[in-house]
Design goal:
single chain; 368 residues; alpha/beta; two-stranded antiparallel ribbon; 12 strands; binds NADP nicotinamide-adenine-dinucleotide phosphate
Length: 368
């Protein structure tokens, strides 16, 4: 069914229907699937989530995003991103207790903001469904399973919820990991979470965590890792293969390389702030041939580069990308990554071209 809209409202909700809508963000048509069938079961858990999520790291943050400054205008844009995402059927939202940490000057908690956005949306439409994923910060002075439950309860308080869908360890601890895994299992048994996962886990840590949870009859649902066309460490370090073997879903963070894969940053127009030190003009120069090819492929499908690189991840079947959106336009563009598929040849060609580019440095914790 094709529905052409010229107004700013281009995502319409319709259960069990496919709608093709004109995305203002890109001038392209975006197909958004709204059916339950379009959802993916997260690992061995019973939790079903949209094939694509949205990341809320930048909401309220002043330590990496927002040019170290958070204000009401940015808050309204983040709220519009949330609303647009949910309206498009992208209902998995990823946050963390450390996003928008009060330790950073002028920051506002991402969890608090998300809780408010959910409440305001639900006040208008009680039927909307949002799957919240949040994370436990394995700080060295936090020890024991009880620390997980106590941090989770603080997160629930900020979110204004009695439970969350997915609770994840944000990174492996320097020590105390067995206690953290027990804490995750306790959280499931206490009905505080539906599913549990880890982030930035190596293959060995992943297998250990899986086995420990299995002894308590609880599946390890997901491993959230840095994964994009130009950052394919999970394909190289055994994590992706282990996830496939054990039935663990990969949640791909930084899936559009923090904007570098969208094509909007060029050697003459690099990103500002901390990202500018990672995605330098030299790096962006080397990236350009790949961006050009992504654009060409996208034109054949009437899709933007952002939609192509997200589709590249979605095509890996066991991967749920969670791109971060700062406004409604960005969130809506993500939805156009769904409802179509790159060919196997295009997937291989893009991987092969991307392998010519030396990846940027990732989050060192994934090598712990
Ligand atoms: N578990 C972990 O350790 C970990 C680590 C990192 C991230 N994460 C999670 O993963 C999520 C996503 O990762 P990320 O935020 O690092 O990177 P990302 O999703 O690759 O990039 C997000 C950034 O790209 C730009 N962008 C978004 N949509 C765009 C569009 N349609 N066109 C052009 N530019 C666009 C925006 O920044 P500008 O508009 O400023 O360019 C946005 O903030 C985070 O929000 C967080 O939830 C988890």
């Amino acid at each position: 069914m094709a529905l052409h809209l010229s107004s700013a409202c281009f995502c319409t909700f319709s259960r069990n229907k496919i709608r093709t809508v004109k995305a203002v963000a890109s001038g392209q048509e975006s197909t958004v699937l709204k059916t339950d069938e379009e959802k993916l079961k997260l690992g061995g858990s019973e939790l079903k989530v949209s094939r694509l999520g949205i990341g809320a790291w930048s909401w309220g943050d002043t330590s990496y995003w927002n040019n170290f400054d958070w204000d009401d205008r940015k808050m309204k844009a983040a709220k519009a991103a949330f609303n647009a995402s949910v309206d498009c059927g992208i209902t998995l939202v990823d946050t963390a207790e450390v996003y928008g940490s009060r330790l950073a000057l002028g920051a506002e908690s991402s969890e608090t903001l998300l809780g408010r956005f959910i409440k305001e949306k639900k006040d208008k439409n009680p039927d909307i469904e949002v799957n919240v994923a949040t994370k436990y910060a394995a700080l060295p002075w936090r020890l024991g399973r009880q620390s997980v439950i106590s941090a989770l309860k603080d997160s629930l308080c900020r979110l204004g919820l009695s439970s969350v869908d997915l609770y994840q360890l944000h990174w492996p601890g320097v020590w105390g990991n067995e206690g953290y895994i027990d804490g995750l299992a306790d959280a499931v048994e206490q009905g505080l979470v539906k599913a549990v996962g880890v982030c930035n886990y190596s293959e060995k840590r992943l297998r250990d965590a899986y086995n420990q949870l299995q002894k308590r009859g609880i599946p390890l649902a997901s491993n959230q890792v840095n994964y994009s066309l130009i950052y394919r460490l999970p394909e190289e370090n055994g994590v992706k293969t282990a996830c496939e073997e054990l039935g663990i879903t990969i949640i791909a963070y930084s899936p559009i390389a923090q904007g570098a894969l969208t094509g909007k940053y060029t050697p003459d127009n690099p990103p500002s702030g901390p990202r500018g030190r990672i995605y330098t003009p030299e790096f962006l120069t080397k990236l350009q041939p790949l961006i050009n090819r992504i654009e060409e492929i996208g034109q054949n499908y009437n899709r933007t580069p952002t939609q192509v690189v997200l589709n590249w991840l979605i095509a890996q079947e066991n991967v749920v990308p969670i791109p971060g959106a700062r406004n409604a336009e960005q969130a809506t563009e993500f939805a156009g990554a769904l409802g179509w598929r790159l060919s196997a040849e295009e997937i291989d060609e893009l991987r092969s071209m991307a392998s010519e580019i030396k990846p940027v440095i990732g989050f060192p914790v994934e090598k712990f």
